[in-house]
Amino acid sequence: MNIEITNIEKSDIPNIFEINKTSNLTFWSENQFLSELVQESEFNLKLQIDDRKIIGFIFSSFIVDNLNINNICILPEHQHKGFGSLILNHSLLKARKKNGKKAFLEVRSINFKALKLYQKFGFIIDTTRRNYYANGDDAVLMSLDLSLLNL
Questions:
Q1: Measured between alpha carbons, how far is 77 from 49 in angstroms, rounded to an integer?
Q2: What is the 3-state secondary structure of 66-81?
Q3: From CA 124, how far away is CA 47, in angstroms rounded?
Q4: For the chain, which residues score pLDDT lower than 70?
């Protein structure tokens, strides 16, 4: 299997929007994705396989020395195959190589698969925001000391 992780381009947004729509309880609009690209972050990455089909992505921003993970998603039929770990690891290592100190993210408390993935990487729960989302779900804020990553 040929796997490639590269920067997201504007022309990728319709595919990324569809991936997010089919994979998440709530999802960003195409305009939200486009606004993330305005910053031209090298941390907005797509994961493609064999036929160059996009099967996942991560949108992150690197500010001063912190990586903020804003959205990560893998198509449901490609989940539990290591692709989420692959793109997350790629982004974290990239931040570490740029002398990043910490990574931050927010996840729904009911998203057990994502919580398990983040904890596998060493993310710790910093706090929980009760009833944060419109449907009453809690938000879990997590962080990772990037110096703990093996390069």
A1: 13
A2: EEEEEEEEECHHHCCC
A3: 25
A4: 25-26, 40, 150-151
Q: Helices in 98-131 by DSSP H: which ranges? A: 112-120
pLDDT computed for residue 148 by the predictor = 87
pLDDT confidence of residue 1: 81
Dist CA 79 CA 114 (whole Å): 11
Could you report the per-residue pLDDT of 29-71, keeping only the tens digit for each?
888 898 888 776 789 999 999 888 999 999 999 999 999 999 9
| Bridging pattern class, strands 102-108 and 4-7 | unpaired
**CATH architecture assignment, domain 4-148:** 3-Layer(aba) Sandwich (3.40)
> 41 near 62, Cβ under 8 Å?
yes
Instruction: Quote the CA–CA distance of 80 and 37 in Å, as a whole number.
Output: 28
Helix axes 112-120, 83-97, angle to 10 degrees: 40
Query: 57 and 46 in contact (C-beta within 8 Å)?
Result: yes
Asked whether 132 and 139 are in contact (CB, 8 A), the reply is: yes
Helix axes 13-23, 30-38, angle to 10 degrees: 130
Q: State the average pLDDT for the chain.
A: 92
